[in-house]
Here is the input.
Amino acid sequence: MTAATHSTLFPQVPETPDAVLDGLDPEQREVALALRGPVCVLAGAGTGKTRAITHRIAYGVRAGILQPATVLAVTFTNRAAGEMRGRLRQLGATGVQARTFHSAALRQLQYFWPKAVGGELPRLLERKVQLVAEAAARCELRLDRNELRDVTSEIEWAKVTQTVPADYPAAVAKTQRDAPRDPAVLSQIYSTYEQLKRDRSVIDFEDVLLLTVGILQDRTDIADHVRGQYQHFVVDEYQDVSPLQQRLLDLWVGDRDDLCVVGDASQTIYSFTGATPDHLLNFRTRHPGATVVKLVRDYRSTPQVVHLANGLLSQAHGKAADHRLELVSQRDKGPEPVYAEYSDEPTEAEGTARRIRDLVAAGVPAGEIAVLYRVNSQSEVYEQALADAGVPYQLRGAERFFERAEVREAGTALRGAARAGGNDSLLDGAEDLAAQVRAVLSTKGWTSRPPAGSGAVRDRWESLAALVRLAEDFETARPGATLTDLVRELDERAASQHAPTVQGVTLASLHSAKGLEWDAVFLVGLTEGMMPIAYAKTDEQVEEERRLMYVGITRARVHLSLSWALSRSPGGRASRRPTRFLNGLRPGSTASGSRSGVGGGGGIDRGSGRAAVERTPAVERKPRSPVRCRVCGRTLTDAGEMKLMRCEECPSDMDEALYGRLYDWRAAQAALLGQPDFCVFTEKTLMAIAEAVPSTAGELVVIAGVGNRKLSRFGTDVLAICAGEAIDGGSEEGADES
Here is the structure.
């Protein structure tokens, strides 16, 4: 970025309406001139959509075609609304309302409430978490802070999708949503929460939309008043509208057609909040006479970055993919994207930090560089690597790792256990450092298996799991280290990263990077299980993960790096694979031939090792002896624990990415055989395989739940998956035998 000058701080207002159109490309100009009738602008990343729609409004106002007070432009964030107002002011179009959906609705609700209902508008509940906690308590449930966040998010999703409490369980089942609790229980909490609001005469932000919709539906006189005030509507980021927002928009517009919507279905990444691109994709169906303009000239990114972004979407599936835009870069050629494979995560972080340091030394401002990852817990290793390299950084959308509440709580617990030493009963039976840490953090929410789905509970687990991994790596690097040594290391890391920074490299999740851009972007941790995330099971969920990666790629102007690590820690098993989304795009890979299953193995040679496994004779099993926990030694009697070869509460060393691949493979097998998933392997058996990571038929057959029969049917695929090989999907032998 160049230093701000007087002309950029105070740009000259265009002297005439025609001057407003100066500098627009042909498609942007067409948007600006399309002032009547329904208009749909399909705008790819970096194509200047905000420029197009603000110039459209400004030209209409300056030319006297639109009256400023009759125009309402709505978007989704206060930042975007503020940017739109600022641009309109610079173009000489003052008096136009540019607001978020909630802000516009609240303004109308406050004005019309006395007339429609009487009295004062109920108090707006700024934070609903406390009331949700009370509702849960009345349902005899005590939720921790993270569970409260997740339950609150579920209530918000239900309301924006117009789902009442009684219908919530059915809606969850229909959408295959990962609910943080039993849907019937959540329905009860949701119902109680709504009753508490009524009892206390308060409303929440979703109620603002719902009540505005209700008034406009019930009072035609008020609806006519609003439609008389606002006659021209512009909606930005239209791919992110929820069903409730669309319903409100329909009531604002009425039977008129002066509506302009702008969006890109390929950037729909917030479906978990209720956003859906269907309204954008179906706009021409609802408005047959609509003008549709496609903006594909990318002014942000170099041809090399754009080529990769286009290639990524060319392999997409689904309705959004059918409407993808082929971007055309308007910039000069730049460097090719860099693909970097590392042996382990710390090495990946160190390599990334070195490359960033080189870019800064070459003149790229640190503030124009970003490291983007899938989940916030990935930030810690990059915070440390950048700190070690002397590169300043700042976090966006999350606290620094060591400032997160769960990490501070974990640190306190670990310090207490270190002081107690052998007198802490938590450490009984935990012989090594990693086992001690797992035992302590199990009291703070860490479990051997991650919670289902996303949300605050999952975020908390990821942070604690990062501490467990850090402890394991620390013990590997310093054999014989004690809990006190680890606590000292954590304190030193926290202190080294505490210094505030003003200008630094941005560390951010892919979701929080939406709408931003940098000269250099590093997409890190691009392995199966992280991209796509392990809990993305359906085709729709996987395709949203692809779009999320597309958003990450298109944040880069010039420099783009994509990296992954083959193992988690130094010396670990190199069982990870780069994301399926790069198949056919990165050097040395082939395009995916399949939209589901384990990473698109179509066209990938399985190698001679698999044929040898297929010919391996069944291994004779020895008579069964008492099964003991391989962690604490207790005799096991529960069938599930016997499959795992450990107590349920004992710590697990399961390879989570491997478990995710096995889980997806099992689903594909079950579909092929026309049987329930558990008929292939139960989840306990999958967990046991992911913990044991067998490399031979002999090691696989002794795992409870496998046996000679399933070894002969599925052993080939399972051993290949454990070895990190790609497979085609269904087992023809298994299907024939079935």
Remarks:
- The longest strand covers residues 556-567.
- The chain has 31 helices and 16 strands.
